[in-house]
Amino acid sequence: MALDPQDFLPLREPTFFILLSLANGRKHGYAILKEVESLSNGKIVLSNGTLYGALTRLMEQGLIERLPDDETPAPGLPRKAYCLSQNGSAVLDAEISRLENMLSRARLPVAEETQ
Amino acid sequence: MALDPQDFLPLREPTFFILLSLANGRKHGYAILKEVESLSNGKIVLSNGTLYGALTRLMEQGLIERLPDDETPAPGLPRKAYCLSQNGSAVLDAEISRLENMLSRARLPVAEETQ
DNA sequence: AAACTATATGTCGGTTGGCGACATATAGAA
DNA sequence: TTCTATATGTCGCCAACCGACATATAGTTT
């Protein structure tokens, strides 16, 4: 009954980067926020509403999973660790393929006008 | 006072394909619909609401322009021809660059966990 | 002549996901 | 003691997409 990754596409930019960030390993919300920011040279700053809203949604969709919390003492509220699920990983791969296809079409020499 | 193309990004998938289709030359709405469909091997079928809503919006944003109508007799309601504006062309280019950057980051070898 | 099909444009209400503002909590440094 | 970075969360708003419906016409088929 495995869901079709295509059903989740296209991803919006913030969702794409959240999944991409988790593809590098377990992470909690705020760490995702900071990683996306540095990965994009400060260009993409996820708002709190976007970040935590997406985490809730992606959990419900089964694209990410909770991990046992990391208990090393740190400032702030208790961290909640997440990772990609198999499904989430498949969706991310599918999205990357979609983007590659889009780009290869976009770079195509100008076709004859069909009209 | 030229607007910054970045202000229009990211484009959603339908909008991207509408602009891309117009980059190949003047076209009316229904022709865009059909071209996007064939370009994507039938995978992307714009809904009417999306298509005509986007055309109205893109006109207001100055990313596309109306052209004098093509008067060769044809079935259906009178055709309305559109083309990319200079701004629209710049936005499309900027979006393609954004996608390329995103993809090159996505293909990067797994970075060390920062957490 | 009537019906059907492809072409063509448009509106409307509902849904989704992102956004900014606000709220709350804590460890460590100043 | 205060300030800052860290950390999670909610709420209402808005933009864009979506499907269903409405309308119109030229050309072909029955």
Written account of the structure:
The structure is a homodimer of 115-residue chains. Chain A is mostly helical and 115 residues long. The first copy, chain A, has a single domain, classed as Arc Repressor Mutant, subunit A (Orthogonal Bundle). Chain A contains 4 helices and 3 strands; from the N terminus they run H-E-H-H-E-E-H. The first copy, chain A, has helices at 13-23, 29-39, 48-61, 86-106; strands spanning 27-28, 64-67, 81-84. In chain A, strands 1-3-2 form a 3-stranded antiparallel sheet. Chain A starts with 12 loop residues before the first helix and ends in a 9-residue tail after the last helix. The model of chain A is unreliable at 111-115 (pLDDT under 50). Chains A and B meet through helix 1, strand 1, helix 2 and helix 4 of A and helix 1, strand 1, helix 2 and helix 4 of B. Chain A binds a DNA duplex (30 and 30 nucleotides) through residues 12-15, 28-31, 33-34, 46-54, 56-57, 73-80.
